[in-house]
Amino acid sequence: MSSAAGPRGCNASDPDDELMKLRKINRVLMDRVERDMDAQGADGYSLFRTAITLETRVSERTAELTRLTRQLMLEVSQRRLAEKALLTAKAEAEQANLGKTRFLAAATHDLFQPLNAARLFLGALAEETAGERARELLGRVDAALDSIDELLGTLLDISRLDAGVWPVTLTNVAVGGMLVRLADEYRPQARAAGLDLRVVPCSANVSTDRHLLERVLRNLISNAIRYTAEGRVLIGCRHRGERLSIEVWDSGIGIPEEKRSEIFEEFHRLGNAPRRDGKGLGLGLAIVDRIARLLDLRVELTSAVGRGSCFAVSAPCSPAAETAEAPEPAAAPTSAIDGRCVLVIDNDAAALDAMRAVLESWGCRLVTAASVTEGLKHLSVLGMAPACVMIDYHLDGGALGTDELAVLRCHFGDRLPALVVSADHSAELRAQMKRIGQAFLTKPISPPRLRAMMSYLLGRSATG
Question: Among 212, 270, 321, 446, which residue's CB has the most CB atoms within a 10 Å radius?
Fold first, then answer.
């Protein structure tokens, strides 16, 4: 919208220009008066009366035009002020949104730190617990930590999507491989619920952001399992013109017509999930909706109450797929950890204590420090060299774990196995770690996943 545009399609003009126009109008009217007087002959009285009448009309028209011009200028001025206020309000809203996102990112980072320590302490406790009842209770605590982790991460994701600060990388994605991998990941969960999870083979490719599309499909598959009591979940694709529709079908409870728009709102959940553990956070479809708008995906829903639902996501087809990621090698036997020296660098004391409890329960010889300088001093006193390093990405004084790791490799060789960890869940950091080929885990860290990663790194070092 142009700030110079006035009401009724008029453009704002300089007041002097308007007065010039009025003078021209007056001149035209006076010319008409003179022509009329000439046409009426020598009747002086008639000429005089006509002149007076026309002069009155000219005065009235001039006054009216002057009034309208002033009104127009006032409206233009008001519109300019309104547009300026609107732009200011928009800028303030955008800044507030970014401020909210930065606050949530900082708060989430700080919350992930104690959550990480709690999960590690829980893992260490599980190693020493033999009773079945105690293990059951530990499992429930771990599930509760999973829910907290998911909630914090999802709230941060929604904030970043709303603020428009989520980076998008469009690539050509092979859909078939992605669906097979997701099905393998969710099949144990489906089997535990008594469901059959199947994937129809697909050789098509789409142009979109691979990570965000995968996030959408994860939410849809998880929801399908959560709201299906018996039967199956089917994942397949079909071509619709120049787009590919990726569809998740279930034989679940279905969604009533009046609820279909509400389910995409935050914290909205259907209250009749068939299992006790089926109560989600009510944020999955809100994420789906935001990602779909960000990537220009189309999300369609068909459902029949008591018979099931289908969520379909369509994306533009592309002729070729990106090179598939190499699968992560299987973890080496956990004996690769026993007796090995592990240097852990983290500026959070609780995280160091928790890591010590976990790694020592696995038989590691542990050296902990808040900085690389401190870690090198401890190693020098002990006369040891680390077999593996685990380092936090954000350290005191603005130091970055990747830079500090380079210092350590100057001392112990470029092939020193290392794992970078962080409470920063941003896609940018993940992409950076992937780009430099650095092993990376986000906090809170699952002890089984940590053990598998360390076993792999140490096993690869032993065979390399």
Answer: 212
